Amino acid sequence: MSNYKTVFFTLGILQMILGVFMLIPIIIQFLYKELDSSFFGASIVTIIFGTLFFLSNLDHEKKLNLQQAFLLTSLSWLSIAIFGSLPFIFSNVNFSMTNAFFESMSGITTTGSTIISDLENMPKGILFWRAILQWLGGIGIIVMAITLMPIMNVGGMQLFKISNNDSSEKILPKSKEIALRLIYIYSGLTALCAFSYKFLGMNTFDSLTHSMTTIATGGFSNYNESIGFFNSISIEISAMIFIILGSLPFIVYIKFLNGDKKIFISDVQIKTFLKIIVVSVIILSIYMTIGNSTQLNLRSILFNVISILTGTGYVNDQFDNWGGFSITLFLLLMFIGGCAGSTTCGIKIFRFQILYSFVANQLKKIIYPKGIFILKYNKNPIDDKFISSIISFIYMYFVIFFFITALLSLTGLDFITSISGAATSISNVGPGLGSVIGPNGNFSSLPDVSKWILTLGMILGRLELFAILVLFLPSFWRN
């Protein structure tokens, strides 16, 4: 295992950081007079394991090859989910191991699905830890999407290389520089969001927790009714603004600070992202007006379209009662997702843009057989190898989606719960559809085997499928 010392050294650092973050909820426990040993014990265990990994791999080579980059990506999320479940297991709430791991994986992957049926009566420390997990998952996926995944050539993410001279040997030095800037930006947006929520009427605790899950587009809330509990237009507007800010490619923030003042209006992903929101709201409004399925509520339509498209999962209305077409549209939005390099998940907008351009080019070649058409994205030419990676990703995305749906059906779940559960796990959205896991439901009543299947979907979707699937190919491990 000497070839993987850098991987385990980095895992050790991540576990120590996670252990330190476990100490923060102790302050919340002290303030609300809920002090127990759950977070302290979990922190000690996590830090000890992290320290062992750290000290036993001090002689690492300080660089990563391609195999190690894939292994580090997968093990990072898996180990954080495992150790992140310890506070749930050690708490007085009596989480089973399955429920604790499900809640932890849902948090760190910013999915937002929960097995907690009575959020209002949960200990504040547990609620705060859920928010911290999503916040850490949000910054983690941003750093990984901008630094590691472009090098790993996962599903077309190579398009977002910071420099064409990047290589796997340069991952760590460049990651440190970029990660610091991303953390500053991410933390700044979180602070602004918290201040906004506090100013608009939330108490201090709610403003802190909701700001962390808003910027992370995770959707964990402290209330069963989610953000709808506050019944405040101003809070919902603030949530929509910061959800959108968290859904933009974070590399544009860096470019903006570097002097590119027009980047927010020139980036092709951002323009398409905003167009999808507008078009979806218009279509849904027309449907609900003509169909008279329910009273037209533009406030609810706009909020839920943004929340579902970005994978945040906040709700302010039971949108699964809006009719069959609404359910189909929201299912489609779950698949689309937000922008690459953001906290959102799903297939990502840039892949649909490139697929559309590819199909348009094929039609042109049929009409004009002798014509030469060069496929471009954001003014950059795209080769056939890149196109094949996009198409294979989308193909595998739906293959895995149907596979998870079938597995969930075998566990005894009904069709709506199975198909929406599969969609919400692989797209990391949070709420599903139907009476069981719908907008105001939860996943507590699902069989344990269903929960394990869903956690698999969560990590597959969060890590762009191939980052995990490739680890099971024997040929990948051959030198």
Task: Give a nutshell description of this structure.
The chain has 21 helices and two strands. With 479 residues, it is mainly alpha-helical.
Secondary-structure blueprint:
Elements: H1 5-21, H2 24-31, H3 38-55, H4 66-84, H5 86-90, H6 97-108, H7 124-152, H8 171-199, H9 204-215, H10 233-247, H11 250-257, H12 263-266, H13 268-291, H14 298-309, H15 324-336, H16 349-367, E1 376-377, E2 380-381, H17 384-410, H18 415-426, H19 434-437, H20 448-462, H21 466-469
Antiparallel strand pairs: 1-2
Structure in words:
With 479 residues, the chain is an all-alpha fold. The chain has three domains: 2-253, no CATH class; 258-336, no CATH class; 361-477, no CATH class. Helices cover 64% and strands 1% of the residues. The chain is built from 21 helices and two strands. It has a two-stranded antiparallel ribbon. A hairpin with a 2-residue loop joins strand 1 (376-377) and strand 2. Helix 1 (5-21) packs antiparallel against helix 3 (38-55), helix 4 (66-84) packs across helix 6 (97-108) and helix 8 (171-199) runs antiparallel to helix 10 (233-247). The protein is globular, with a radius of gyration of 22 Å. The relative contact order is 0.11. The model is unreliable at 163-173 (pLDDT under 50).
